[in-house]
Sequence to fold (125 residues):
Amino acid sequence: MIEEKVFEAEGEAYYDFENDILFFKAKDREYSRSLEFNPFVIDIDTENNLVGVQVFDASKLFMLPKSVLMHVKDWQFKIRIEGNELRMDLIFKVEMRGKTIEKNPMLFKSLEHVELPDSRMLVRA
Fold:
């Protein structure tokens, strides 16, 4: 039986307007490496925890104007790895035209050629 790692942390969000990249990451973690899964990248710390996510072409993916993504609030991401599958739930809110909009995309990726321990993590604002 594989022991499951669970990691929970406070985080921070940042939007790169020029390159249309939305970043979510755990605070105060020592970065080790990244794994790319188009259209996102996950970051791993020195303790093999999944501690960040970068979403490329975020305005297109989430169908939101870039100016709106500058003000992401009330967010969290959950990543779960089981066997050779990664599941990421990304939940965040933005204000657009005086209304609060919540986005909750779920992304799934195969990890056939990637070795990571079974784990779960939650990072939130």
